[in-house]
Design brief:
The chain has 386 residues and is of the alpha/beta class. Helix content is 36%, strand content 16%. It has 16 helices and 16 strands. The strands form five sheets. The chain has an eight-stranded parallel sheet with strand order 6-13-12-11-10-9-8-7. Strands 1-2 form a two-stranded antiparallel sheet. A two-stranded antiparallel sheet has the order 3-16. Helix 5 packs across helix 6. The radius of gyration is 20 Å and the shape is globular.
Length: 386
């Protein structure tokens, strides 16, 4: 499979959201009668769209509101919420920084040590409001932070890095044994990120409750530019979903995959589900919420790297409340609000009663899908022309 790109080298073609379209089937369903919910670690959530563990997106207030609306927001334990007693002041400074100052300021802000007491405090603040407390950190901090989060009442723990594999090699530090970590952790563990069939299979065998798939597609991520790595999200999701399905047939264990990053609007979220996702994780769309702590700004998780930043601060603006972004009514015409309305309407048009049904949707290669007949929108920069 693949095309020749030079002497003795082949490369396979991979696809992103702008290059494909979904094809309606033989029947349609009333959108009010479809079920877009998903199941994670024995619990069912009515919103299959998670808020990414990014400091411009999720704080305690945001996590509580997301829980009230039926979803999950992941709090970053490596970020400002656990480094500062009053993170609001730091977030305000980041929002006010000029583009030239932003990366340097973010790097300086994240030098301050993490206060372990704040890990427990943030989890307890979320649980006090009866919302799901799901937290995230890098593998190097996972064992220490997970123990604290567990004791504080966390519902799930996410171990996340740019690229995660079972076989991480290092002579300078001890790599996290993912299988051992999952087996001894009392709460569900989510692991990410990966993009290939083979790595997905190995990560599924660790005992993880779910996997995050996608490397570098986020609006504020520069990994693809800085490191040159990544696979477009449609192909990534299809490949990782194939591994999930094979693992289920072999073991009887169904472990959800969560497409992480690269989705700004409802249509892209719908394409992720049609590609095989059980849920999706979104950052920039939620950074636009009134409740988001970034004040209309959004920055990548690796922006703070002291030597090689792999993210940047971007301005996304504030478009409405979290409820409007999830459930409407939409006040904008570009598909960035009422994401759940877009999902259920798409499911109805496709004849998919559930997310699992949606995974069998016919997908076509359609590079003209964004531009066909849209000349007025493009010229006037409205709707799909923005």
């Amino acid at each position: 499979m693949g095309e020749w790109i030079g002497m003795n080298r082949r490369a396979r073609r991979c696809y992103g959201f702008d290059e494909v379209a979904l094809v309606p089937g033989m029947s349609t369903i009333n959108p009010a009668e479809v079920d877009p919910s998903w199941q994670f670690a024995g619990k069912r959530y009515k919103v299959p769209i998670l808020a990414a563990a990014m400091d411009g997106v999720v704080d305690v207030k945001f996590a509580v509101e997301m829980g009230r609306l039926g979803g999950i927001a992941v709090l970053n334990l490596d970020g400002v919420q656990t480094r500062y007693e009053k993170p609001e002041e730091v977030l305000e400074a980041i929002a006010k920084a000029t583009p030239q100052e932003a990366t340097k300021l973010v790097q300086e802000v994240y030098v301050k040590p993490i206060k372990e007491k704040l890990i427990a405090q943030r989890v307890e603040e979320i649980k006090k409001k009866k919302a799901p407390a799901v937290v995230s950190c890098i593998p190097q901090n996972a064992e220490r932070f997970c123990s604290i989060a567990e004791d504080a009442g966390a519902d799930a723990f996410v171990v996340q890095s740019t690229v995660t594999t079972v076989r991480h090699i290092s002579k300078s530090y001890k790599a996290l044994d993912l299988k051992k970590f999952c087996s001894k952790t009392k709460i569900p563990v989510v692991i990410g990120n990966c993009v290939t069939y083979e790595v997905t299979l190995e990560l599924l065998d660790t005992g993880a409750a779910a996997l995050l798939v996608g490397i570098g597609p986020g609006a504020a991520c520069t990994t693809r530019g800085v490191l040159g790595i990544g696979v477009p999200q449609v192909s990534t999701t299809i490949d990782c979903a194939a591994a999930r399905d094979y693992y289920f047939k072999r073991t009887g264990k169904y472990i959800p995959i969560i497409t992480d990053g690269g989705m700004r609007i409802g249509g892209e979220i719908c394409k992720a589900f049609a590609s095989g996702a059980d849920a999706v994780m979104v950052g920039s769309s939620f950074a636009k919420a009134v409740e988001a702590p970034g004040r209309g700004y959004h920055w990548g998780m690796a922006t703070s790297h002291s030597n090689l930043p792999r993210g940047t601060r971007v301005y996304v603006g504030t478009s409405g409340s979290l409820e409007e972004i999830l459930f409407g009514p939409a006040k904008v015409d570009d598909g960035s609000q009422n994401l759940m309305g877009a999902l259920t309407t798409s499911m109805g048009c496709l004849g998919a009663a559930t997310i699992k049904d949606m995974q069998f949707t016919e997908i076509i290669i359609a590079p003209s899908i964004q531009t066909e007949g849209k000349i007025f929108q493009v010229v006037q920069r409205v709707g799909m022309g923005k």
